[in-house]
What we know:
123 residues
Amino acid sequence: MNEKRIILExxxxxxxxxxxxxxxxxxxxxxxxxHSSITLFSKLGIDHNEMRxxxxxxxxxxxxxxxxxxxxxxxxxxxxxxxxxxxxxxxDAEAGTHHVVATAAIEAWLPDQAGKYKTSVRK
Length: 123
């Protein structure tokens, strides 16, 4: 089945004191989600379950991200989440800790809708 990417949103999140990569990743996803309002589904009568959602979160320790928990934050579509090396750890040498900064990219895909709709001209 041919798919077309219909959405690409980015976000950032952090955990300043808990050093928790999953919390920072979830906040990055929430930031990205709050940049979108998608009226396409209601306007065209498309079921949200037709949408595939791919999320990539970047942190310095990707193995520390609970991707299943991050996926639970996605309100619609069939979600998959993967964590990759990226983001930023800001060291606090005095405290012996670090602040975690995560970035997220959310891509949404739909089956190709070409030919399903006709445009009309209003007079």
